[in-house]
Design goal:
The complex is a heterodimer. In chain A, 67% of the residues lie in helices and 1% in strands. Chain A is mainly alpha-helical. Chain A has a two-stranded antiparallel ribbon with strand order 1-2. Classes of the chains: A mainly alpha, B alpha/beta. The complex binds adenosine-5'-diphosphate and magnesium ion.
Chain lengths: 325, 241
């Protein structure tokens, strides 16, 4: 593999890690918890996209885009529901209890998806109850416990840029990197300049002082979960398009990698998530191309984490932990 | 108007507040009438901050009633109480260190409309020209006195009818303490009712109309501030004579 393709691949998979890491980092910054179910929201997003893109009612040229929107909305709602049902009553609980709950939610999502996909008659439910026919072109229902691929649903070869005989920038890479940049810019504008964004920063810094301003903490945290989970849906679709196969545990690996990216960048920091994600993606692709065995790639990734934390315990852009006066 | 004809704006009736098993407030009752300055004094750990936090909805009293502006507010959340015009400027200032001065003021007006915020912001910048100069500065870089100004201005952004101040002079040089008390008098002059918690009992009693003395979770004395200022027991315990 030559250096250009390492850079292109690194930037694109890194962009996906960054989008996921933004969700981790926002939830950590504002709700002060690690939402380890975040990776599984990615998986739900990818499945939702997969099903929606196969819905006969969405056959037009805008079909895939509408499917993306459906995945985003559904994941945002899922994130809000998870926060409300699983985490809200644990606001004052020790962080270990929250962590265990998050792991529980993660397994719950994986197992529910496993069950739903292997149930008989899911397609009949969609057809009869929701009036949506979800099937392949040859009318074969797409539900089933088998491994899914979404590559043909997100074909972006028409956007490929051929730089030379041997070097092509894939359309998917261009879209992924562009989506990531748009998300980071929009999110920064949102957090810095909108009323809700400022309220989020206030809650992040001092929850009870924020309450004294009349800020509704619950609503702020709900919005945070909705945004993070909506981003997870986008990341899930891009991740599976990369391509990765879609199974109920698909979210675990990118979830963990993105969590590492968030920690490397400095958890709680939006630019940190971007830098951490890109760095991780690049290191991963580089080691994959130079190391003799690909199994060592993850070891390199974890080493980067350890090295960064040795020198900067709060991550590259993390705030110094300040003593309260 | 004589004191007793003024309308009661806040009445705390026999509240009990716990931190886990710790019984911090043991049946406190107090009232504040419109246009008064009322002060609550007492030693460190007496329960003054806990009382204010319970009134503003940060803490929930286990029993007792809090009525503000003829509405029962005990058990309501701060986000419901603040828009009613009852605000707390907390102990230790608690400004948002990482936000700019202007953003802090924006947050103070969180429950109000954009045009109301703009109007109040202009007022605050007029009242506190120092804050105007430092509008875009990160609040954590302000001096202690400036941070206290910002904390008060931030609370005023909500345009409170009743402003509760928790130790506004804490840790400030004497000249700044004077300045803070001048502002308190000015605010009172402009129609804000004030409930003031202070370590500096002498200054608090000299600006206040009435006072409550608190010891380990109960009110032990109450009366006209001028009378308490000359009371032997108060002098011995809180005024250092
Ligand atoms: N968060 C808390 N958890 C447990 N006990 C507390 C907490 N805050 C205050 N206390 C206790 O409640 C009592 C009253 O404290 P506080 O209201 O802060 O007093 P004051 O403001 O008069 O100095 C003290 O004994 C204090 O130790
Ligand atoms: Mg106190």
């Amino acid at each position: 593999m030559d250096i250009m393709s390492v850079i292109i691949n690194g930037l694109s998979i890194g962009s996906i890690y960054a989008i996921i890491a933004l969700g981790y980092t926002m939830v950590y910054g504002i709700a002060k918890m690690l939402n380890f179910a975040h990776g599984d929201v990615i998986m739900v997003g990818a499945y939702t996209f997969f099903a929606a893109a196969h819905a006969r009612n969405l056959n037009g040229p805008a079909g895939p885009l509408i499917a993306v929107l459906i995945a985003i909305v559904l994941c945002a709602l899922l994130g809000m529901a998870i926060e409300f049902l699983a985490y809200r009553s644990l606001r004052q609980a020790p962080s270990l209890a929250v962590l265990i709950t998050a792991i529980g939610v993660s397994y719950l999502l994986q197992n529910v998806m496993q069950t739903v996909m292997s149930l008989d008659g899911v397609d009949r439910f969609f057809k009869n109850v929701l009036g949506v026919v979800i099937s392949e072109n040859n009318d074969k229902p797409i539900f089933g416990a088998d491994t899914k691929m979404i590559t043909d649903l997100v074909n972006m070869q028409s956007l490929d840029i051929h730089l030379s005989e041997t070097l092509t920038i894939p359309g998917l890479a261009i879209v992924t990197i562009a989506v990531n940049l748009v998300i980071v810019v929009l999110l920064s504008l949102f957090v810095n300049y909108t009323k809700m964004g400022k309220a989020m920063r206030s809650v992040s810094e001092d929850r009870s002082a924020a309450q004294l301003m009349g800020i509704n903490i619950n609503r702020t945290i709900t919005v945070t979960f909705a945004i993070g989970s909506a981003l997870a849906a986008i990341a899930g679709i891009l991740y599976c398009a990369f391509p990765h196969e879609l199974v109920p545990t698909t979210g675990s690996i990118p979830g963990i990698k993105a969590f590492i990216a968030a920690v490397i960048g400095g958890i709680g920091s939006i630019p940190g998530a971007l830098i951490g994600g890109l760095l991780l993606g690049f290191v991963e692709q580089l080691s994959r191309s130079v190391l003799p065995v690909t199994e060592l790639t993850d070891a390199v990734v974890y080493s980067v984490l350890i090295i960064v934390l040795l020198f900067r315990p709060t991550g590259l852009l993390g705030k110094k932990i300040r003593e309260k006066v | 108007m004589t004191e007793s004809q003024r309308r009661i704006i806040l009445s705390v009736e026999d509240i009990h507040v716990f931190y886990g098993a710790i019984h911090a407030i043991k049946g406190v009752s107090l009232e504040v009438r419109e246009d008064e300055i009322v002060t609550l004094i007492g030693a460190n750990g007496a329960g003054k901050s806990t009382t204010l936090n319970a009134i503003t909805g940060l803490l929930k009293p286990r029993s007792g009633k809090i009525v503000y502006d003829d509405k029962l507010i005990s058990g309501k959340k701060a986000s419901k109480i603040v828009p009613m015009g009852l605000c707390l400027c907390p102990e230790g200032r608690r400004i948002f260190q990482q936000l700019t001065v202007r953003e802090n003021l924006d947050m103070g007006g969180y429950t109000r409309s954009r045009s109301e915020i703009r109007e109040s912001m202009d007022e605050m910048f007029e009242r506190f020209p120092r804050l105007k100069e430092r509008e875009k500065q990160i609040a954590g870089t302000l001096s202690g006195g400036e941070q206290q100004m910002l904390a008060m201005a931030r609370a005023l952004m909500a345009r409170p009818k009743l402003l509760m101040l928790d130790e506004p002079s804490m840790g400030l040089a004497p000249i700044l303490v004077e300045q803070i008390f001048d502002i308190i008098k000015e605010l009172h002059g402009s129609g804000v009712t004030i409930l003031l918690v202070e370590q500096n009992a002498r200054m608090a009693l000299s600006v206040a109309d009435r006072a409550y003395v608190m010891e380990t979770g109960v009110i032990t004395m109450t009366g006209k501030a001028s009378a308490l200022l000359h009371n032997d027991a108060v002098q011995k315990a809180y005024l250092g004579n």
